[in-house]
Design goal:
CATH architecture of the largest domain: Orthogonal Bundle
Transmembrane segments: 12-38, 79-101, 113-136, 142-159, 198-222, 242-275
Keywords: ATP-binding, Cell membrane, Membrane, Nucleotide-binding, Transmembrane, Transmembrane helix, Transport
GO molecular function, one term: ATP hydrolysis activity
Strand order of the largest sheet: 7-8-9-3-10-11-13-12
Structural class: alpha/beta
Number of helices: 21
Largest sheet: 8 strands, mixed
Domain ABC transmembrane type-1: 77-266
Strand content: 5-15%
Bound molecules: adenosine-5'-triphosphate
Organism: Solihabitans fulvus
């Protein structure tokens, strides 16, 4: 607050800030006071002083009825400014509604709104204003509506663009997983985060509205006699411009100064707040076949069943398929890790399970079931309750995981208000309890703080606390420790492990760090180029993984511990891009054991023992090197 306050103060001291404050104060003061002080003089007809030039009695001369032009210009401030502000408020509101509609409406209707807005934005504002002025009729009301509707499309576009940038952030995804409905999502999470730039642009828009209003009145389709605004005075003054130029110049100068006041204030506010002037839906569409994986046997206690999962995105040249037929099962209370290099499709697999893959992404699977419910065919409304209480997501970046404009406690409480129907107070108490259970000190006080007042590690723990507001049966944690230092990392992993044992909660831990996964999970899925290439118990790591890629990953984790005199073990080459996956085994180009067969035939994930599957033509038989075993077994999480 202090820092923010001093920022405003510093901005007010700049030439731009000072000018804008002086001008705006002048305009507002005139709008309030001028009609009270000079109404009579502005309307006083003097037939003895018709069409006079500037004089001691009439500083800017008189009009065709002998009325004092200076007082008329001053008194007109109120009507001119009020109408411009009114038009702006209506325009911004309509724009916001149009901008927000696409995220609330069904997809086809949303696209229609976006197209209409895009077409409307292409027309010049004044042309639209004239068009609407004809529709709404001549007069003040018509002009206000005309200008408002002419402004609306550009605000709609701005709101759509800003909302799209917020919708992609983790806290919105977290709220979606928590089952928050679309309208609430919009009002609570999206709008508060796009408020500042909208206000800045609205202020600047008010300046433009003022100018547009003067234009309409000048053309005779705005304010009608006996009322008058600056545009109307300009029109009247123009008749006698050769006799008394001040009669036309004065209202013109007033429009410029007031317009400047709005624009400068907008610019100054933009300088302080730093402004530079779709919902998840999984459809079944045909995507190119990308191979299959051997179906698994699923026990009765299977909580999450994934069979031949594919995630595809359209590209101008065809489909790119970053997840190409992934199959696995997570049993109740089991901790499963997903490891692999960057881009191997780990996060997309997690997002597909929680139904957070954004359009135009397409998710397909032979089976994708959570707690016995098919995730692809059950309507979103029905799923919301199940996912909201039984599934929790913990994202990588603890800064973007919470809505910065809302207190932590309230964000946690929202889950219980939504799903358990708890009253506000009770939900808040539960939130405090959950914060306590994830070891947030002084939980009661902390619950009333904003996310920026928490440390990174505390935010991650609070995120887990948010997941625990329901009764989660599965927590999907996507690189939850990447942004944290080693000590906090350890605490967080311990917390996840404790949560799992206390609540019999299953965990799907996505990480690029094989050591973290081996210390926290029972089982590990190794992903490469959108496929699971090995599925093994972490306990079997010491005995030696079978796939050359898993072995190479394991060896690469040693780099930090190795004797610097020894050459580093790195995996030569890079994984292929999703749209350039070669025929045969995707790892073949980097594999020391590759043969001709690997270059043409893609190996299927097959069981080597009951709890071990591998996709390789030449699975390795020997034990892992001693040092590799040490790396994955040293320092358990508990
Ligand atoms: N919305 C998207 N549109 C197109 N391609 C995408 C999209 N999201 C992800 N991808 C691509 O899918 C591939 C896998 O992405 P994913 O985020 O699942 O990788 P990851 O294994 O989690 O990597 P990291 O560890 O870097 O997060 C990447 O090549 C990525 O570029």
């Amino acid at each position: 607050m202090g820092r923010r306050g001093s920022k405003w103060l510093a901005a007010a001291r700049t030439p731009l800030g000072a000018c804008s404050i002086v001008l705006l104060t002048l305009v507002v003061a005139l709008a309030v006071l001028a009609p009270i002080l000079w109404q009579d003089r502005a309307f006083a007809v003097d037939t003895d002083a018709i069409g006079q030039g500037p004089s001691g009695t009439h500083l800017l001369g008189t009009d065709s009825l002998g009325r004092d032009i200076l007082f008329r210009v001053l008194v007109a401030t109120r009507l001119s400014v009020t109408l411009a502000v009114l038009a702006t408020v209506i325009g911004v509101t309509v724009g916001l509604v149009l901008g927000a509609l696409p995220s609330v409406l069904p997809r086809a209707a949303g696209r229609l709104v976006i197209s209409v807005v895009t077409i409307a934005v292409a027309f010049p504002g004044l042309l639209l204003a004239l068009f609407f002025a004809v529709i709404f009729g001549v007069g003040t009301h018509g002009a206000v509506l005309a200008i408002a509707f002419a402004m609306a499309p550009s605000f709609a576009r701005l709101a759509q663009t800003l909302a799209a940038s917020v919708v992609g952030r983790d806290f919105v995804s977290a709220a979606k997983v928590a089952g928050v409905g679309r309208i609430r999502l919009l009002v609570r999470h999206v709008l508060p985060n796009i408020g500042e730039p909208l206000v800045v642009n609205a202020t600047i828009g008010a300046g433009a509205a003022l100018l547009a209003f003067a234009g309409l009145s000048f053309l005779g389709i705005g304010v009608q006699a006996p009322d008058f605004d600056w545009g109307r005075l300009l029109n009247e003054g123009l008749d006698g411009i050769y006799l008394n130029p001040a009669a036309a110049l004065a209202p013109g100068v007033a429009v410029v100064l007031a317009g400047l006041a709005f624009n400068l204030v907008g610019e100054a506010v933009a300088g302080v707040v730093g402004v530079r002037t779709r919902s998840a839906r999984i459809g079944r569409r045909s995507v190119p076949a990308a191979g299959t994986a051997a179906a698994e046997e699923h026990g009765d206690d299977a909580l999450l069943v994934v069979e031949n999962l594919q995630v595809a995105f359209p590209r101008p040249s065809g489909w790119t398929v970053p997840v190409r037929g992934v199959s696995f099962t997570v049993r109740a209370g089991e901790a499963v890790g997903v490891v692999g290099e960057s881009g191997s499709g780990k996060s997309l697999t997690g997002l597909a399970v929680s139904r957070l893959v954004e359009t135009p992404g397409v998710v397909t699977a032979d089976r994708l079931e959570f707690a016995g419910t098919p995730l692809l065919t059950t309507p979103e409304r029905e799923l919301r309750g199940l996912l909201g209480t039984s599934l929790a997501m913990v994202f990588q970046d603890p800064m973007t995981s919470f809505n910065p404009t809302r207190r932590i406690g309230r964000q946690l409480a929202e889950v219980s208000e939504q799903h358990q129907g708890l009253p506000r107070r009770k939900a808040f108490e539960r939130a405090v309890g959950r914060l306590r259970s994830v070891r947030i000190p002084a939980a009661e006080r902390r619950a009333r703080q904003y996310p920026h007042e928490f440390s990174g590690g505390m935010r991650q723990r609070a995120m887990i606390g948010m997941g625990l507001m329901g009764e989660p049966r599965l927590i999907i944690a996507d690189e939850p420790t990447t942004a944290l230092d080693v000590t906090v990392q350890r605490q967080l992993l311990r917390l996840l492990a404790r949560t799992r044992t206390e609540g019999d909660t299953a965990i799907l831990l996505i990480s690029h760090d094989i050591a973290v996964v081996s210390q926290t999970c029972d089982r590990m899925l190794v992903m490469y180029a959108g496929r699971v290439v090995e599925d093994l118990l972490t306990g079997d790591l010491a005995a030696g993984p079978r796939h050359p890629y898993t072995r190479a990953l394991l060896a690469a984790t040693l780099e930090l511990d190795t004797d610097r005199a020894e050459p580093l073990t790195v995996i030569p080459g890079r994984p292929p891009e999703p749209d350039r996956v070669p025929a045969g085994c995707a790892f073949a180009a980097r594999c020391p054991a590759a043969t001709d067969q690997c270059l043409v035939e893609d190996p299927v994930l097959e069981s080597v023992t009951a709890a071990h599957r591998v996709a390789c033509w030449h699975p390795q038989e020997d034990a892992a090197p001693e040092r590799a075993r040490e790396a994955v077994t040293a320092g358990g999480a508990e």
